[in-house]
Amino acid sequence: MWNYVVRRLLYTPLIVIGVLLVTFLLFVVVQGDLSTEIAGRSASAETIAEIRAEYGWDKPLFINIEGMKQHGIEALFDSQFVKHFVDTVTFDFGRSRASKQRISELLWDGAGPSLCLTLPMFVGLLSTSLSIALIIAFARGTIWDTILVVICVLGMSLPSLAFILLGQYFLAYKLGWFPIFGYEPGWSGAKFLTLPVLIGIIAGLGSDVRFYRTVMLDEIRADYIRTAYAKGVSTRRVLFVHLLKNALIPVITSVVLAIPFLFLGSLLLERFFGIPGLGYMMIEAIGNRDFKVISAMTFIISVLFVFGNLATDICYALVDPRISLH
Amino acid sequence: MKTLHTIQLIIICLMGMHAGCGQEASPPSSSPEGLVVRYSTLSSKIRGLDPMDIGDTTSSAIGGNIFDCLYQYHYLKRPYQLIPNLAAAMPTVSEDSLTYTIPIRDDVVFFDDECFKATSGKGRGLTAADFIYAWKRIANIKNVSKNWWIFDGRIVGFDEFREYTKTIKDKADVDYSKPVEGLVALNDHLLQIKLKKPWPQLQFMLAHLPTAPVPHEAVNHYGEEILNHPVGTGPFILEDWKRGSKIILSRNPTFRDERYPSEGEPGDKEAGLLTDAGKRLPLIDRAEFLVIQEDQPRWLKFMAGDLDVAGIPKDSFDKVINTNRQLTPEMLAKGIILTKYQTPLTLWYGINMEDPILGTNLPLRRAMNLALNRKEYIKLFANDRAIPARGILPAMFGDFNPELVSPYINYDPQKAKQLLVEAQRIHGGPLPTITMTMGGTDSTARQIGQYLTRTYKAVGLNFQVEYMDWPTSQDKVKNKSAQIYAMGWYADYPDSENFLLLFYGPNGSPGPNNMNYKNAEFDELFEQMGTMPSSPERKALVQKMEQMVIEDLPCILTSHPIAFALHYNWALNRKPHVFGEGHLKYGNIDVERRHKAKTG
């Protein structure tokens, strides 16, 4: 297994270079420099030139032939892509073009609130939807199964924005059970996070329960379940030990790959409940063509995703003795 | 200067320009530690609090309460009147109008801050040299300040200083002690400015936030992080800033002795705006701003009484305002007060005059103006919260011409059709499809696009809209590849020059004249007007220039928005003020009334 892990880790730099190249091509080569936009209304030619120099947009894209002719071979790599690559892999993301703030600080400040929202939401949604799916699997074919499936479909049909608007209006404003808006770091902030977490769980239940129900139903018809019942194993043990463990492969696939994206937060919940996370940062950065921010977040997500994939494979091997990693 | 696109402007106006809203999560019925606290919101994130770089409305709304300028607008008097702020008096102007001598108050100190190492953190006194230093930072090309337009080509020797900064490799090596002939500190409290040519608008610039003084100690101490560590002389200190979430300003204990105005305009006394006359400013101890970007939470917070002020979201408008354009009884019963006021804002669709189809075809431009039903447009997209634009200048400007006449501004589709026939003759055949560049992809942008397409198709003009994000649309406008585009202008100061510069030929793209309008006679009059002090002669010139523009029509004028703002009756001294920043110091809160209202 270790050979497999090392080999996968060695692939990581290549994947990251590919990601950096794609983001560079998309946001620098295709969109061009933004010097006139940054310069504002006073955009004299000199100011624009200064901005181009400040952001390195006056340099060649990939290799600097002219620079090499004038300053020698070391200037060959004095280009936009090489600088972008070196800065990114050394985590020197620089400053956001739009906010002028250090990107590393923006990421650090935003990751905490995002995770405070998404982690409990993720755990709550996973445990609730798995439990409900197990119950449905147990009650398959009954009226309860039908009712729950209908509710799931209804839940899936409603956009998450509807849950947010209704939850905020009725539970926070009308009933006053939760704060309408706000965020505080630490435990004192729990009261602000309760409603968005609750809404996030409810909004996600429909699709997750449907998915896990299908997984459970596939397993519950298997021979080993019938054998367990024949041996007199209790229903609880059949469901939570035998069935759940064997149904874990598709669960692991969806769960482990979702973990890196927890870092990105939740766009709508953060905006509507005032949680200063990273949910809106990426969208704002794209709108502002803030390439450095986009690049930094893409880099981090891609690295996390690569490790998430690796973790998934390892989990497969740990959970299912039929799988071995070579 | 703030140039805004239509979608942003409509949204801003719908929300109430200066309303602010949002707040802290804990119910503010009882203020912490018995302090007088104002709760409000910001609708976007702060970009930084270094005056050199401040350009956006939100950052200005905060920065204006931390930094002071030489002059400020009187809070109550109308028309808007400049009065001394950090200056001890209005400037003395030489006979040739080229030299301004400004006395500086001797009782002003910067906040206490760790950057003042020589005084163990105690803020030092403000001097004339602090202004020169701050302005040289703007001139330093290595700082890439957006605000160089303020001084560009105006002050003797200042352009040369900017040239000098080009020769310096690192911005930290720029020698700020290098003399500039036109900027001299005659002594610690006397500043002299020498101009290259008369520039009456200088006084307005000296009330503009980017010209606020900044201590060199703070710049040296914080370096690039100065944008997060504002050290000013204003009534409030930045107490806490949770990025993208919350900002708290607290009373500056070393703020100079400034008093609430004792006189205003007729009606102010009756409106309770002089109750605090003569009281020391600021009147509140703390101001908390929450960044709330969505309408619903902002509105619910206001309705819950957690906010003192708010705008009206588009979707709630009909529930709040009745058919008589007044508050509904439910709102009045809650103690909510409505304020309606004009903004120094004009919206239009700019026409690129260098476009080969539109630029040379006056009947086509006139037909496009005649085809637009402005009343219907305003009703649909602004809840009737705007006045159809007949000219460039909003009515609050002294040079506004109520008798401005153009036969091409009214809605007349029949005449538009006739003019299109002539336009085709000039073009030499059927007109090609006209493409509008829309800087927005949201539903409002698309609704506007559909409306305009239908409007022009109805008179026989093929019209289409291309939707893109705002920065991309700006690129198209600046590189002159857009034919028509949504645009607007919110004036920075109450002088017509601020609007007319948008039509001055040499200001063509990428400058502010993005319509690339060129009219030699207009340009000549603009140069003449720019050096004239306010007078009947100048007013006549301005009105002549405005008439020229509406005859040539390098744009499709749409509206002058009217802001609707709400506040609770416990938020006192609320008077709309559309110029300058830093009005928080005049606001007051009746904490007891708020407490009673919140606790029933």
Describe it for me?
The complex is a heterodimer of chains A (326) and B (600). Chain A is an all-alpha fold and 326 residues long. The radius of gyration of chain A is 25 Å and the shape is flat. Chain A is built from 15 helices and no strands. In chain A, helix 1 (2-29) runs antiparallel to helix 15, helix 8 (160-174) crosses helix 9 (190-220) and helix 12 (248-262) runs antiparallel to helix 15 (291-319). Chain A has 2 domains: 2-89, no CATH class; 103-319, MetI-like (MetI-like fold, Orthogonal Bundle). Chain A starts with a helix and ends in a 7-residue tail after the last helix. Chain B is built from 18 helices and 21 strands. Chain B has a domain at 345-562: Dipeptide-binding Protein, domain 3. In chain B, a hairpin with a 2-residue loop joins strand 7 and strand 8 (190-194). Chain B has helices at residues 6-15, 57-63, 128-139, 158-166, 202-205, 216-222, 295-303, 317-320, 329-333, 362-370, 374-382, 413-427, 443-458, 470-478, 497-500, 520-530, 536-552, 591-599; strands spanning 2-4, 37-42, 71-73, 82-84, 92-93, 99-103, 183-187, 190-194, 236-242, 246-251, 286-291, 309-311, 336-342, 345-351, 386-388, 434-439, 463-468, 484-490, 555-568, 571-572, 588-589. In chain B, helix 10 (362-370) packs antiparallel against helix 12 (413-427) and helix 16 (520-530) packs antiparallel against helix 17. In chain B, strands 1, 12, 13, 14, 15, 16, 17, 18 and 19 form a 9-stranded mixed sheet that branches. In chain B, strands 2-11-10-9 form a 4-stranded mixed sheet, with no helix packed on it. Mean pLDDT of chain B is 89; it is low at 1-30. With 600 residues, chain B is α+β, with helices and mostly antiparallel strands. At the A-B interface, helix 2, helix 3, helix 6, helix 8 and helix 13 of A face helix 7 and helix 14 of B.
